[in-house]
Write a structure and sequence with these properties.
heterodimer; A: 9 helices; elongated; B: alpha/beta; Rossmann fold; 6-stranded mixed sheet; two-stranded antiparallel sheet; globular
């Protein structure tokens, strides 16, 4: 099969799986417990790495931007710059990349091992649809948790920026928080929360897709885990561009 | 080929001859390229995944390595089908699980995870899980492969008990000749005091309801009883038996 047909085939299969996943949400039985358990694993389990990522990103943003702002005599605006770049761009994207690494890999390797040890076959044989029982809860959980994790990352990013501004740039605390908060418009927050919704869906769906299509034993599990992380990360960055463009088009 | 109630069909063949694929097709996990499959007079060849679900309820499959869900305990694995069906109360599920685990002599392992069990125990737990809901058809995918002779014997006895005492139709895929011949030459009987014993058919030929099927590269090259298998003149079969 040539590369072109291969790609076309993968897109078709991925679309079909997404469609079946979406449809399974509206049919009984529903797996609320599984969704909650996945939310805990994906959401609560990732809080710490997201906090660290946000904190140091905010800090380095303040450090770097202060240098450029100084040449315009606008160091006062550090808060605004940190807040805008974090909430609209870096918060969602960096959180999504961290989660793609942690959660995407986890989903793909877990489902992949279940495939190669015939647990998926066994589940189908026992009359349970693995898409409903395994895929849908993971996709729902990652889509729901990513916006929340992004909010955590944004908050800790602002705190990181504040600490750097306070101790290395000698900026006034209230000045930092004032410029930061006032610069954020409704649209910025909307964009900052819409992106992680899309990213969360991509990460969950890609992880499940590569996991469930694992072939070739334990080596195959390793391969699909790598593919899931790489594909999810690239798609997150591509989707980021398009969502930004769409939001900018509808800006008023 | 055809399998009748209370009959066991043993499928022999080397690796890659399509033994496991036959079982997967019966369960509807893979679709055949050609040919048709009937389960209790209903054709399943063209059914969709959703339509297959009620039919799968009548079939139990024992997978090669057990295929227990490793995130669940043995008890939860056995209870899986009933919990999913949501038709039983927790007390009913608990009593069925204990009864089935007792049947495969794993009552003590109910709260253990599959990773804590030996290969033979995993296989037996897999059999218990396949028995939930009294399936009328059982599919065994190499249940004795890689096990010590004593554990293999235990599993063969389970297979015979289900065939002779419960009237279950089954397909037994294996390349372990010894256990295949055990299943084909002995039968289970309940004594008046309730004890189950295993007897050899000796000279009462055809007492045991088991037929052989030999596969070679996806084709059936032999079908018949164990005596006919032994006396077959086919080179491949003779090599296999040695």
């Amino acid at each position: 099969m040539s590369f072109f047909y291969r790609a076309l085939y993968e897109i078709q299969e991925f679309t079909l799986l997404s469609f079946r996943t979406g449809r399974s949400l509206f049919r009984k039985p529903r797996y609320f417990e599984d969704i909650l358990r996945q939310m805990e694993i994906i959401g609560t389990g990732s809080i710490f790495i997201v906090m660290l990522t946000g904190f140091f990103t905010g800090g380095v943003l303040a450090l770097q931007s202060a240098k450029s702002l100084k040449s315009f005599g606008a160091v006062n605006l550090t808060g605004q710059l940190v807040a805008l770049s974090l909430v609209r761009e870096l918060g969602p994207v960096l959180t999504a990349l961290m989660i793609a690494g942690r959660v995407g890999a986890g989903i793909a390797s877990q489902l992949g091992s279940m495939v190669v040890t015939q647990q998926i076959d066994a589940m189908r044989g026992l009359g349970t649809d693995p898409i409903k029982k395994l895929v849908a809860p993971r996709v729902v959980a990652s889509t729901a948790m990513l916006p929340l994790l992004t909010v955590v990352a944004d908050l800790f990013g602002l705190i990181g920026g504040w600490i750097v501004s306070l101790y290395t740039l000698r900026l006034n605390t209230s000045l930092y928080w004032n410029t930061a908060m006032r610069s954020l418009a409704y649209n910025d927050v909307l964009e900052g929360l819409m992106k992680p919704l899309v990213f969360g869906f991509i990460i969950g769906m890609i992880g499940c897709y590569f996991g469930i299509n694992t072939t070739g034993g334990t080596r195959g599990v390793g391969r699909s885990t790598t593919q899931a992380v790489v594909t999810a990360s690239i798609l997150v960055i591509i989707a980021d561009f398009f969502v930004s463009k769409i939001v900018l088009e509808f800006r008023y | 080929m055809e399998v009748r109630p209370a009959e066991t069909k043993i499928i022999l063949g080397g690796g890659g001859s399509g033994k496991t694929t036959i079982l997967k097709m019966v369960l509807g996990l893979v679709k055949p390229d050609s040919g048709r499959i009937f389960i209790e007079d209903q054709e399943i060849t063209q059914l969709t995944e959703a339509e297959l679900m009620p039919i799968r309820k009548r079939i139990g499959m024992v997978f090669q390595e057990g295929a227990l869900f490793d995130s669940l305990t043995v008890g939860e694995n056995v209870a899986f089908r009933m919990r999913e069906a949501e038709t039983h109360s927790e007390e009913e599920i608990d009593s069925v699980v204990r009864q089935l685990l007792g049947f495969v002599e794993l009552g003590h392992a109910i709260d253990k995870f599959p990773s804590e069990l030996s290969g033979g125990m995993i296989r037996r737990a897999g059999i218990a899980r396949a028995l939930v809901g009294h399936p009328s058809i059982l599919l065994y995918d190499a249940p004795t492969a890689g096990l010590d002779p004593i554990t293999s014997r235990t599993i063969c006895e389970l297979v015979m008990k289900l065939r002779d005492l419960e009237g279950v139709a089954s397909i037994f895929v294996t390349h372990d000749l010894e256990s295949a011949l055990t299943v084909a030459s002995e039968f289970a009987e309940t004594l008046p005091n309730g004890e189950v014993v295993f007897k050899n058919e000796d000279n009462n030929l055809c007492l045991v309801n088991t037929r052989f099927l030999m596969l070679k590269e996806g084709n059936i090259i032999f079908e018949g009883s164990d005596e006919a298998l032994r006396s077959s003149s086919d080179r491949y079969i003779q090599d296999f038996l040695e």
